[in-house]
Design goal:
125 residues, alpha+beta, 2 domains, 3 strands, flat
């Protein structure tokens, strides 16, 4: 599986000397020399008092001055993934040689699965 599009946003509280002379995060980051480090994107919050408050207020604009920037960064990651394509998502249906939801519908696999389970059409991938 290609993890090229995998990105992780993490909260970052900038330094506030003298009490906090260095930046703080809610999570442990990989070493900066690691390839994985490039997949981590900081989400700055200068309003948070602690790492925990920065994490739990990440999606609250009044408590996170970096909220809208976070949204723009997330949209850019999604836009890049859509522009470059994405790998196929294989579900349990893939085990029966069906490789896409459309193919499952065309071959009637969804109807058989629904008859077997008594469920309706599942649109979640």
């Amino acid at each position: 599986m290609n993890f090229f599009f995998l990105r992780r946003f993490y909260t970052l509280i900038p330094p506030k000397p003298p009490a906090n002379p260095s930046a703080r995060t809610f999570c442990l980051l990989p070493e900066s020399s690691s390839d994985a480090f490039q997949r981590f994107i900081p989400a700055r919050n200068t309003l948070a008092e602690s790492e925990v408050s920065a994490h739990i207020t990440m999606f609250e604009p009044p408590k996170n001055d970096g909220y809208y920037h976070l949204g723009l960064e997330a949209a850019a990651v999604i836009r890049q993934a859509l522009a470059n394509g994405r790998p196929l998502v294989h579900t349990t249906v893939a085990e029966s040689a069906v490789h896409s939801p459309l193919e499952a519908i065309e071959t009637g696999v969804d109807q058989q699965r629904n008859a077997d389970t008594g469920g309706g059409t599942d649109l979640l991938l």
